[in-house]
Predict the 3D structure of the following.
Amino acid sequence: MKKHLLTITSNTEIARNIFEMKLTGPGTATMTVPGQFLHVSVGNNTSKLLRRPLSICDVDLEREEVTLLYRAQGEGTKQLSQKHTGETVDVLGPLGNGFSTESSEDRKKALLIGGGIGVPPLYYLGKKLKDKGIQVTFILGFQSLEASFYIEQFQEIGETIVTTVDGSLGLKGFVTDAMDQPISDEPLIYSVGPAVMLKAVEQKAQGLNGFISLEERMGCGVGACFACVCPTETRQSGYVKICSDGPVFKMGEVVL
Amino acid sequence: MSRLRVSLPGLDMKNPILPASGCFGFGKEYAKWYDLSLLGGITIKAATLEGRFGNPTPRVAETESGMLNAIGLQNPGVKGIIENELPWLEPYNIPILANIAGSTEEEYIEVTKHISASPLVSAVELNISCPNVKEGGIQFGTHYKSAADLTRKVKGVSEKPVYVKLSPNVSNITEMAEAVEDAGADGLSMINTLVGMKLDWRTGQPILANKTGGLSGPAIKPVAIRMIYEVSQKVSLPIIGMGGVSTAEDVLEMMSAGASAVAVGTANFVNPFICPEIIEKLPELLDEIGVEQISEMTGRSFNQWKTPLSSR
């Protein structure tokens, strides 16, 4: 595990309060697994101490460039959004266990379901799955048209169904509303978003196998502080640490 | 290296730096980042008699220059710690300070008996100041008679020196320190976190599922300095200082206030390499002020110095 000082090559608002930050540096060479995250230091002073766990959205190994998408919601991420090209960002990582794309080799199809700021890691994952010859379909849920992002980029990888809560883009409703049509050919499910969404996805996808990635406020990001635990009935300890055991788990492995 | 050596009851440390309890797990995670044998010692996460799951999430919230936590003493229980966690630390050959907690006096006593009997444990840190559990913890640390009673009982069964970790959430921490000194404590750890709270202004709801949590980080350092300064002049016990320490300068400030060793907590989350980085920088700072042995720094704020250090 490493600490890297990466240089910002761009940091732009691509949807309402959603920023795309591209960072370059030699450390990007290790960022090859989708679903892993970087623990990002947002400020240059001691006012905002804690790092923010931001999942890897894309990596260009040749250009040594990693892309992070984040929502500037609180003061810390707002400070991050004000950083300029050429400034450096201190990151730890890649951290956590990402999505296994190996286990999906015997599958022909994958259904990737993301909500809000859970959408970004599905981009890197979708690209990796497509590279393995898997037919990828996305269901992406947003609040509204103006909060939506990366639709065209996802469409380049595979069929992309969009839902919005207010109906301003795609289907009106939640990602699970787009799962109402019968799911054919038993695709492997990959889902990222808030726990309430993941729970609904697990219910809709009953009988199918797949993986989910959890979001939680984190402290250390490396498994030492026990801030981001989640109950499970599948381990003797009764819990998993989201940062170091996850953030990716098999569907049904944790109690949502 | 010997200029950084400090010696406290049960803790012969090659430098005064150790991670604070709860901020370093049982060491495994940070061993992936650096060689733990660089540390002066290690304080392991609180042990209770049975395993505990802790509080619901969210368990942390950031605040200005600090953070709130309400983990709730999650741990695998004292037997699990002795069997699975301690042996793993043995090769690093550094003193282990074992933090112990409980809901009742009996639980503290049982945990102390078990863990202090381990040859790998150098000393025990009696946690009577955790603000995040409903029973035990802070209730023993805010009334000096119950703190003294518990200290006496734990001391009676402990095979190792006992450090009492004091809460800042009291009206008079000096009285508390004097009470546990009289009860036989071998040292003090101070300070634990300050009870705080953060609300989401949009919803009006607390960020932490536990509603309140313990405030740590640089925001509380001035409180820690003041309390160590006052207590160290009233008691003769060595003090492991802690509370917002993030730099080598902070370490020397805290030792000047009266600490003999210094624990680093929240700063580990900001920078996993913070402890070895601080240790590496200390000699340079000592050179700057012309101090040979770091142990000379303890109580510098109120001690009479034969030669004024700052004039060199």
